[in-house]
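During the reporting period the student researcher (J.K.) took over the structure-prediction task from the postdoctoral fellow and processed the backlog of single-chain submissions. One of the processed entries is reproduced below for the supervisory committee.
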Amino acid sequence: MTLLQWLLLLFGIGYLICWIIILIKMFQNWHKGLAILSIALASLFGIGTLITFIFGWKKAREWDDMDNFASVFQWSSGGICRNVMRVWTVCIVGVIIVSIILKI
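J.K. obtained the following structure tokens:
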């Protein structure tokens, strides 16, 4: 495997981990129906992950404000959910850029 393929793999793993973390937050914050729908639609051209991504950005600040854990262990520029969403955004952009370079 080339370096770009390894990068694509790392971005993909990061993408998956961030998606799972936000799905867990959805279940914890009484959005179970939307979380189940996102899981079901994930195999349909990634529509479920897109729903989770948009909803995660929409609710990240609210979830961070509600979460006592986030207020104790707050990172430099936001709570846990906002930082997970930032990492997820970097992973998405990374996958797109590396895929374009590899012409996948």
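The committee noted the following: The first helix runs from residue 3 to 28.
J.K. will present the remaining backlog at the next meeting.
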